[in-house]
Amino acid sequence: MTEKSGARAAERDLSLSDSEGTFLGLVLRAQPITAYQVAKVYDRSPVSNFNTSKGKIYPLMKRLVERGMLIKEQVAGDARGTEQLRCSDLGREAVRQWVLDMRESHVMLEDPLRTKVQSFDLLEPGERIEWILSAKESLTEQLDRLDAYQAGVDVPFKAFVHDNAVRSVQARIGWLDRMLATLLRETAAENGS
Prior knowledge:
The protein is mainly alpha-helical. The protein is 66% helix and 6% strand.
């Protein structure tokens, strides 16, 4: 980035939400790319917080275009009016700043399973155990989806990204195993076994 463009970027708000940073980073890596192609990448992703609907993608694109971070260009000779997306220099710098920005929400991630366990008192002991077994089965299936996805995708630092996803799922399975062992011990103690 030149000194002049750096000064202009400093004058503009480069802050991005995680959704905007994820989207703009994807465009930057794959450009030129159409909105349809971006939607397909989102649809194929086994990462639930990466998946998003077309109803969210198009307003997000519009905001990024209005902020000068995303450029839409008509595909020459396309009668349907297809537009390709490119990241502007400003958008590239915004993604760079987004990557550098470490927020509290990036360190302690939301976990709906953990949140649901806070209401375990509403379940019977058998229901708790069934819930844990079902969650473990779903997470094990997710490991298979992650491996299949990893084999068919080419992204920078793919090995690191895949390792994080796999280890995160494995950690959740380990947490469920510890919870299950504790609940089984408590149930056995209550039954006098």
